[in-house]
Structure formats: C-alpha cells, structure tokens
Amino acid sequence: MKKIVVLATFILLLGGCSSSEPETLPMPGGIYTAEYDVRGEYALKFALNEMGLGESSYQVSLYKKQIVNGINHFFLVRVEDDSYEIKVYEDLTGTYKLENQEKIER
C-alpha cells in the first residue's frame, strides 16, 4: 500500500511539470505578430480604399500590431498581382490614418 501511495505521488508530481514553454507576452510598445481580426480587417479596408484599391481582391500574408497611443497595424498584403507593405494608425477614438504604403517590387 505504501508503494502505491509513493508511486501515485510521484506520478502527480511529474504530471504537474509541464514541458511546454510559458507563453511570452509582447514587449510593451513592441511590434508583434497578431491574429488577423476584425480591427485589422477594418484598418486594411480603410487603407485599400485610400489607395484606390477598395474593390480589389486581396490576401493578407502577414499582420502585425504595435500598441502605442492607439494601434499601429502593419500588413503584408497581396492585391491582385501586386504586393504591398501597409501601415495604418488607429487612434483611441477608432479613426484610421494611412501612414505608409509601399509596393514591393519582385
């Protein structure tokens, strides 16, 4: 009986040890890869409209965020046959401003 209790305790102790890495949070003010969400979608659609590409089909390859006094949204996006790096600033009221757009030459 004593062996069973010792064995069960040992198994419970091992089970409590996790081999997975702890989740790391982004550094405050740092740029981090984010899940493309509704806010990102609104920011990108705003940018595409500002660029005159609002009706074009697009595919997001990479989406990053930076929390500042608002949110900087960074996109690597393919629009039709062209690729762009786009930066959109969203202020605390939800107003967007297209900060940068750069067509990537192949």
TrEMBL record:
Highest rank taxon of the organism: Bacteria
Xref: Gene3D superfamilies: 3.10.450.10
Span of the signal peptide: 1-20
Keywords annotated in UniProt: Signal
Keyword Signal attributed: yes
UniProt name for this protein: Lipoprotein
